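Worked example 3 (structure in, sequence out).
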């Protein structure tokens, strides 16, 4: 619930005709309840290349969709509805109680129509009056560059359809990172362990290291010590919704010979 829903509930209790009901926003939309579908959470696994450049994924989601037969209304034809006899179409029932302070008027959701203001007299034979059926939908998901493990993207209105023409829920996309094997992620930076032999460390050498976009050549000076870290600026991952990029950190490891 959001703050508007909380205050409108106070309005339902006091009634829209009372000063308290006006203050809290009573009588929202005539008191009729609007159904909302449930959210769906899915996981999408990405490799480092997809994370670095962003990617568009097409995902087939099994979910509740609006019934095609009744167009989500739940009724069989245009004459399938009738106005609720208890609330006269308002979606609320009002009660007046005598107290020592005078008459107090309260409003509550109509139990006969569940706040919808109308009832179904002829139910749709395909969905049995619910307005939703089980189906599937192919959804395009645009994932920006720089997302990380556990990050959640929200796609409004792409969740389960609601009963009888309400608002659909949301699709929550949770990001998973696939293991690269050579590059390890640390925030927006990437780490790579480069192993060289004792002679190359003493005399210097040229080497190739993997990056997101291919191979990069680096030069090691003579006398390079084990544990030294070389920084390749801008060869890391981008920050979400930003032009800033991390670095590739090359960790030097020297194989020491056991027998000279």
């Amino acid at each position: 619930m959001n703050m508007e829903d909380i205050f409108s509930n106070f309005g339902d209790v006091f009634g829209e005709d009372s000063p308290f009901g006006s203050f809290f926003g009573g009588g929202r939309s005539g008191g009729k309840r609007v159904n909302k579908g449930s959210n769906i959470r899915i996981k999408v696994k990405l490799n480092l290349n997809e994370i670095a450049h962003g990617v568009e994924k097409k995902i087939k989601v099994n979910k509740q969709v609006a019934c095609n037969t009744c167009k989500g209304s739940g009724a069989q034809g245009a004459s399938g509805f009738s106005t609720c006899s208890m609330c006269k179409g308002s979606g609320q029932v009002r009660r007046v109680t005598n107290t020592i302070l005078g008459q107090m008027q309260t409003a509550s959701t109509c139990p006969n129509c569940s706040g919808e203001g109308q009832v179904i007299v002829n139910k749709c034979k395909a969905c049995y009056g619910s307005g939703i059926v089980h189906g599937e939908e192919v959804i395009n998901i645009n994932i920006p560059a720089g997302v990380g493990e556990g990050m959640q993207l929200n796609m409004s209105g792409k969740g389960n359809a609601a009963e009888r023409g309400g608002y659909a829920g949301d699709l929550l996309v949770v990001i998973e990172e696939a293991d690269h094997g050579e590059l390890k992620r640390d925030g927006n930076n990437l780490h790579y362990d480069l192993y060289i032999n004792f002679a190359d460390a003493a005399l210097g050498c040229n080497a190739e290291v993997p990056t997101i976009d291919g191979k990069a050549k680096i030069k090691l000076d003579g006398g390079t010590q084990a544990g030294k870290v070389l920084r390749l600026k801008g060869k890391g991952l981008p920050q979400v919704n930003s032009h800033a990029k991390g670095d590739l950190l090359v960790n030097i490891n020297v194989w020491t010979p056991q027998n000279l």
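Notes: Helices lie at 3-14, 19-24, 48-53, 198-203. The longest strand covers residues 55-66.
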